[in-house]
User: What shape does this take?
Amino acid sequence: MVDRVTHQGDAVVIETDNRRDYAVGNRRLLIGIGLAPLAWVLAEIVGYVLASRSCEPSTNGLHAFGVNHPGVALVSIDVVLVVVGLVGLYTAYSSTQALRDDHPPGDYRVEQESGALPPRDMGGDPTFTRSRFVAMTGLLASSLFTLGILLFGLAPFLLDLCNSAP
Assistant: This one.
């Protein structure tokens, strides 16, 4: 791709820009790999603090605020955080789909198929770029962390959150 042609005396200078805009930006990759783990951390922290403060007898011991029905509050918070995790999962999935057929510049396989290079065994797929790795890692991480948030949401249905020993 030629960006600019200039004349310097008798010489013609052709300036090119070999940079390429990939289908997925760094922000999108960061959202795909980081949103669900962030939601999971929030579910952990909010869940533990809310359950501990809401289940203390009388005036909450430390004068902290609690809720009358911690199970309903925890399920409500977990539903919101599951949606946040699913947004991260969808972002990671759409990133992997956008990068599925994308080839980086200077790709060995493309040069080999075009006849520019002789065939040889590279030992792996050189088209598995950093962006693809981050997108696939985000897909795996978002799936696992969203499942973890769902498991936190099951606790109020299976356990008595304020079970006090006699």
Notes: The first strand starts at residue 2 and ends at 8. Strands lie at 2-8, 11-16. The helical segments are 26-54, 60-63, 70-98, 108-113, 130-158. Residues 20-158 form one domain.
